[in-house]
Amino acid sequence: PSGPVIGSLGELLVEFVCEQKDGRNLVPAAYRGPFPSGAPGIFIDQAARCGARAVFAGAVGTDAFGTVIFDRLVGDGVSASLIRRVAGVPTGSAHVSYNSDGSRDFVFNMAHSAAAHFPKGDEAVRGFLSAGCQVLHVSGSALGDPAMRAAVFDVCTALHGAGVSLSIDPNIRTELVSDAGYLQTVRALIALSDYVLPSDADAALLWPDTTFADWSASLSARHIALKRGDKGAVLKSGGTITGLPAARVTVIDPTGAGDCFCGTVVTLLAAGMAAPDALARGVAAGALAVSALGPMEGNATLSTIEAALAGA
Ligand code: ATP
Ligand code: MG
Known about the structure:
Blueprint: E1 5-9, E2 13-18, E3 31-37, H1 39-49, E4 53-61, H2 64-75, E5 83-86, E6 92-98, E7 104-109, H3 121-130, E8 135-139, H4 146-161, E9 165-169, H5 181-192, E10 195-196, H6 200-206, H7 212-217, E11 223-227, E12 233-237, E13 240-244, H8 257-270, H9 275-290, H10 302-311
Parallel strand pairs: 1-4, 1-8, 2-6, 4-5, 8-9, 9-10, 10-11
Antiparallel strand pairs: 2-3, 6-7, 11-12, 12-13
Helix pairs in contact: 1-8, 3-4, 4-5, 8-9, 9-10
The protein binds adenosine-5'-triphosphate and magnesium ion (MG).
């Protein structure tokens, strides 16, 4: 591909999806998996599928789950240059169980897994810079654990200082947040970012009782997207606000739609596509994402997304 060089870093996980609702991961039930996952992993896979030259600083174990993730990302075109296979620790994992009210419960195995061993410090900074990284995307899910948070923040500030654009999806997962430094770091990264892409729930937590127009005006980011689930999405780019409704689809598995949306929109905006066109493709990609079981099974190439748009 000749697209923009997009980077991300953080957790790579396998995910298991409970087949029954309302068990809250507390009762025996059938789970489907292993599916390749991890919010930044979903993002970078989708960026690659949309034509980015994609670079990811991450780590998996030498076990079978690690192979599941490694083979998917590299098979979809993500560079293997900064993906480690670490012996002696298991590959990270997540179990998700849905509830009838639309909420979901996660059990994560991340901070003590291979996922936490992603390349850090100089190794990561040099790797991203030598790849020509133009945008580095961060998911808030990688900022819950204090050690991972410090490492991610360090790489972000170094790359920002070297002229790389930052992108952040607050992607707040309460199961991962262990201390108060989390929100402070999310806010610090938002202030440095050119792309800010919260969900409705993230925005309600970060800017309570304010409208999109108000909180987006308080940010210096060039591109601000609000992900609204089945209500669609809004994008403010260069001062112009565009909103689009969601496509009507049957929801099979909502997890990962946000990361897929971000991977699509950030890649296309970085490639120079007009904001309304990038938003339309992001919304179509999100609809494809929720239509498949598994967090990145609904990721799609730009041509598949455009075919879905044309058929809509
Ligand atoms: P996650 O954190 O689970 O990855 P998110 O909360 O960050 O998701 P969403 O708003 O759920 O992000 O999804 C991103 C985009 O995908 C939405 O803006 C919308 O365009 C599309 N989408 C999400 N849910 C649906 C749905 N039920 N039907 C159609 N499109 C959807
Ligand atoms: Mg999200």
